[in-house]
Amino acid sequence: MTQVRKKPVYQDIFGLPMNISFSPECVRGTIQYKPRDDDIFIVTFPKCGTTWTQHIVHNILSKGEPFESFEDFQIRSPFMEMLGPKTAEVMPRPRAIKTHLPFHLNPYSPKAKYIYVARNPKDCCVSFYHHTKMFPEYQFTDGSFDDFFEVFMNGENDWGDYFDHLLSWYEHRLDSNVLFITYEEMKADTRAAILKIASFLDQTYKDLLESDEKLIDKILYQTSSDYMRKHLNEQMENFYCNPVFHRNETPEGIKYINEYFKNQKIEMPNEMKFVRKAAVGDWKNYFSAAQSKLMMERFKEKTRGTDIANLWPDMFTDVTGN
Ligand SMILES: Nc1ncnc2c1ncn2[C@@H]1O[C@H](COP(=O)(O)OS(=O)(=O)O)[C@@H](OP(=O)(O)O)[C@H]1O
């Protein structure tokens, strides 16, 4: 008998599966948003290092000032599909906007800047599994990794197919207004990655960091996984797990989510472990040999004719390291 798998719940917006509590208006508004010349976008497929990059960019732009709270983080580096495009009007500048859209749907201007962060699909899948279990609106809190693996392989998770997303931005990796970087590169030499991002934003930021050893050390510290695990997780817990989430003066996207939670009688989560392992290679603790093989086959099939595999030289090893 074939096993019936548990699946998270999504809505369809513009052909993309999406978190059921998100406002379709906010997603539509994001796709239709006309970027300003000084807009910086941090674009990723979910769970590929978005939040880390948002913190790095914010620390560079603010010369080492951390976000004060989760509300501050949302105002200064808004997640546009979630909060709505109006947030870009009120955000202080220069600041970065987060989106998860594939290239053809992302608001585009040749003058705006785009930082695209890619991550090995196996680690992305594991991280996405934990994310989907953590947020109650997916109704997947008791889902298993095997359940989610199938969802991921079918491109049924939020923002759709991992490979289509990656390919859509990889094509633009050499555009002068795009910085294409991997999570693994950032982990291997975070200092170099911070300087690379600073230089992409403006040479003056890089010059400043190179002339001020204390500042770059401060940024490294404030964007480290240990620091963010302590501070961001606590800030997110305060936001999501208590009534602050229900405040009325929040952006339109949050109001929509609040209403959705209220109407659908969805319980708030009890804890928010958003910054989790923050490591490269956690997939080895989850993937079976068969799942690893399936992912490798899908990787080869989807990226045929490109040199994307060079991004992750160990992509074609199985759980035993062969
Ligand atoms: N400072 C820092 N350093 C390294 N890694 C970090 C950091 N902060 C967050 N993370 C890890 O990034 C993963 C979450 O990805 P995203 O921020 O893209 O998630 S989201 O799409 O915005 O929901 C998630 O990865 P996993 O630990 O593998 O689940 C986070 O732990």
UniProtKB/TrEMBL annotation:
UniProt keywords, alphabetically: Transferase
Family to which the UniProt record says this protein belongs: Belongs to the sulfotransferase 1 family.
Keyword Lyase attached: no
InterPro entries to which the protein is assigned, alphabetical: P-loop_NTPase, Sulfotransferase_dom
Gene3D superfamilies in UniProt: P-loop containing nucleotide triphosphate hydrolases
Record-annotated Sulfotransferase domain positions: 37-231
Pfam families the UniProt entry points to: Sulfotransfer_1 (PF00685)
Protein known as: Sulfotransferase 1C2-like
